[in-house]
Design brief:
two-stranded antiparallel sheet; 384 residues; eight-stranded parallel sheet; TIM Barrel; alpha/beta; globular
């Protein structure tokens, strides 16, 4: 397993981090704990030592499950990361209560990596004013957390402000080969490299969008390396950056886990030829953007927009819409759109209240995009 040294913290982490946002689910939508337990056990056995969860993942059920699942493992054998849901915090007392609940859920007396979750300009200003950042520092001083950082969803300018505001132990940004100029982006990466702040990467495969392509794209990647999976190119693009210390992957089945373990067992940075191939893929994909959908829409399936008051499965609708244009084939998404989502959860039920847009870390125009998604998928113009 590829390891990276966080020189600032004098520790070593696995380059692959286990993201606990997309565990396998049972038919009733609950975490398939038997399968998820096997996956965590397998990852730890293979050398993964960074486990990332959050208060809100799986509708609040990720942390309790992770706490139970990790109980059988030596606490010193892994680093545990979780996050403070800043949107639920209106006082230091709120933060204190939530943190105590997280320790109980996770069945531990300390958190290794603690993050202010999904930070943007508004939340940063609010947390400073409330004294929550100082509270988190006190938790560190007391040994209840080891390292303090934040996950980020806003512009580079806000990122620069936050990075310069204090001596962070680490930070977490969204980065992949399609989003190099979005949010903090590559400019943010270079800033962390300059300031020697260890970097954790989320959405390296863009919510799965960079793991499955139409044949013409897949063939380009296969020509570069016939034995490599499509997803591995995205992971290696991020991992080729030296200040990237952990790459989070939210894995939903054992096949995805094993593929990732293969990629990171003997990690290889991208060659110049492979970089050129990825540049070609980016160019082709950007050329497919229609009516603001596919890659341009930027939906990563984080589900911060949920639940929808009208019952619309917003990330599900965007997943179907994006896949439709990626593969240029309605048959690929017909089951997902018609059966898994069904009439009640489709975009046409949107009442345009706008609640979802206030929570979207990608700042999408969700109401407009839902209307376009419904029209596209109703038309079914592309069928193979």
């Amino acid at each position: 397993m590829e390891k990276r040294k966080m020189e600032k913290l004098r520790i070593e982490t696995s380059l692959l981090g286990f993201g606990c946002m997309r565990f396998p689910k049972r038919a009733d939508g609950e975490i398939d704990e038997e399968q998820a337990q096997k996956m965590l056990d397998r990852a730890l056995e293979a050398g993964v030592n960074y486990i990332d969860t959050a208060y809100s993942y799986h509708d609040g059920k990720s942390e309790p499950f992770v706490g139970r699942a990790l109980k059988k493992h030596d606490r010193s054998s892994y680093y545990l990361a979780t996050k403070l849901p800043v949107w639920l915090v209106n006082s230091v007392e709120d933060a204190e209560r939530i943190f105590a609940e997280q320790l109980e859920r996770l069945q531990t007396d300390y958190i290794d990596f603690y993050l202010l979750h999904a930070m943007n300009k508004g939340m940063w200003d609010k947390m400073l004013k409330l004294g929550v950042v100082d509270f988190c520092q006190r938790l560190k001083d007391e040994g209840k957390i080891r390292y303090l950082g934040f996950s980020f969803h806003d512009s580079y300018e806000v990122f620069e402000e936050m990075i310069g505001a204090r001596d962070w132990d680490f930070c977490q940004i969204q980065l992949n080969y399609m989003d190099a100029e979005e949010q903090a982006g590559m400019k943010g990466y270079l800033l962390t490299e300059q300031k020697q702040i260890p970097l954790v990467i989320m959405e390296p495969v863009k919510g799965g969008s960079l793991a499955k392509f139409s044949d013409d794209i897949t063939d380009r990647l296969r020509a570069a390396d016939p034995d490599a999976s499509t997803a591995s190119f995205a992971l290696r693009w991020v991992g080729s950056l030296p200040n990237v210390k952990v790459i989070l992957s939210g894995m939903s089945d054992m096949e995805q886990l094993e593929d990732n373990l293969k990629t990171f067992a003997q990690f290889r940075p991208l060659t110049d030829v492979e970089r050129g191939t990825i540049d070609e893929v980016v160019s082709v994909l950007r050329g497919r953007v229609q009516n603001g959908c596919t890659i341009k829409i930027g939906c990563t399936g984080c589900r911060y927009c949920m639940p929808c008051p009208a019952g619309v499965n917003i990330p599900g609708c965007f997943s179907a819409w994006n896949t439709y244009h990626m593969y240029r084939n309605y048959n690929v998404v017909s089951w997902e759109w018609e059966k898994e989502l069904g009439e009640k959860a489709q975009a046409k039920n949107c009442v345009k209240c706008g609640k979802c847009e206030t929570h979207c870390p990608q700042h999408l125009k969700i109401r407009e995009d839902l209307a376009r998604a419904q029209a596209d998928l109703d038309a079914k113009e592309m069928i193979l």
